[in-house]
């Protein structure tokens, strides 16, 4: 069964208009979700807004947005005023420009979505846009209103479809100068740099997302399963602190370990598909309610 589209609209390139549908590409809905309970009764608890001064509950219809202008002073914004500030949407990805695919710094990436034709009549126009971008090795910068906000979206060919990534605005991305302001200038050379290069060369690989396990999620699943089965929970022993060594000596040891690992790599059996399925089945033992993606 095809997933439900999050948004439907149009992709416009010049005079070529193609109806498209937007689908969530990354979701947290499969993560284990917990409810908050009253320890004494076992009943679920619910959140409630209360007046900070009186302590009395405030019903939804009495809640309004407020912008603090000074300590304790707010400008009140009514719901219809906030709604009127939302840009009007024509449901169209308006292409501003085509740019090289790697022209946008990753720090501007927000959330990815899949773009596909919204109906069979759009397949030809969609394929034309996709293959034209692929041949020229470019991405499209588009602007539209998504989920009540105007967003910039980077659209790129992806397999037989397109992927659109919402972008952070410039004011949302903090300057790296603030994070790196205390870093001294250092010149690394000689044996130290050679050892670092050697370690990198021996650990070269390729990105395979299926090879990465969410160990925290797996540990939660095992914990839930153990509680359901009434097994004793054994706290994990804290990891012993590593000894502080000289940087050059640490590099030499790492280079030696990397060399040994590369020699043994061919003798290490790969995890079979059956083993992965067994692990997944074990993880599924502690079934809990899932939270729907918002």
Automatic annotation (TrEMBL):
GO terms for biological process: DNA recombination; double-strand break repair via nonhomologous end joining. Belongs to the prokaryotic Ku family. This is Non-homologous end joining protein Ku. Pfam families: Ku. CDD domains: KU_like. With LigD forms a non-homologous end joining (NHEJ) DNA repair enzyme, which repairs dsDNA breaks with reduced fidelity. Binds linear dsDNA with 5'- and 3'- overhangs but not closed circular dsDNA nor ssDNA. Recruits and stimulates the ligase activity of LigD. Keywords: DNA damage, DNA recombination, DNA repair, DNA-binding. Residues 234-294 are annotated as: Disordered. NCBIfam families: Ku_bact.
């Amino acid at each position: 069964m095809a997933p439900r589209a999050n948004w439907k609209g149009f992709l416009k390139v010049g005079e070529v208009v193609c109806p498209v549908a937007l689908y969530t590409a990354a979701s947290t809905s499969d993560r284990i979700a917990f409810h908050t309970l009253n320890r004494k009764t076992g009943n679920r608890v619910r959140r409630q807004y209360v007046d900070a001064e009186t302590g009395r509950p405030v019903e939804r219809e009495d809640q309004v947005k407020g912008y603090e202008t000074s300590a304790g002073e707010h400008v009140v914004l009514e719901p219809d005023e906030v709604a009127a500030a939302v840009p009007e949407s024509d449901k169209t990805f308006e292409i501003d420009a085509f740019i090289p695919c790697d022209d946008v710094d990753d720090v501007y990436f927000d959330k990815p979505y899949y773009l596909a034709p919204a109906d069979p009549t759009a397949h030809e126009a969609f394929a034309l846009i996709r293959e034209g971008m692929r041949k020229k090795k470019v991405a499209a910068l588009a602007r539209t209103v998504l989920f009540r906000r105007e967003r910039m979206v980077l659209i790129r060919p992806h397999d037989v479809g397109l992927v659109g990534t919402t972008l952070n605005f410039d004011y949302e991305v903090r300057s790296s100068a603030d994070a790196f302001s205390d870093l001294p200038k250092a010149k690394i050379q000689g044996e130290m740099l050679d050892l670092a290069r050697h370690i990198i060369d021996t650990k070269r690989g390729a990105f395979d997302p299926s090879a990465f396990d969410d160990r925290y999620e797996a540990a939660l699943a095992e914990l839930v399963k153990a509680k359901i089965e009434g097994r004793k929970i054994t706290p994990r022993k804290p990891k012993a602190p590593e000894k502080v060594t000289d940087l050059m000596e640490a590099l030499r040891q790492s280079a030696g370990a990397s060399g040994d690992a590369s020699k043994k790599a061919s003798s290490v059996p790969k995890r079979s598909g059956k083993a992965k399925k067994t692990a997944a089945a074990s993880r599924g033992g502690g079934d809990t309610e899932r939270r729907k993606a918002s």
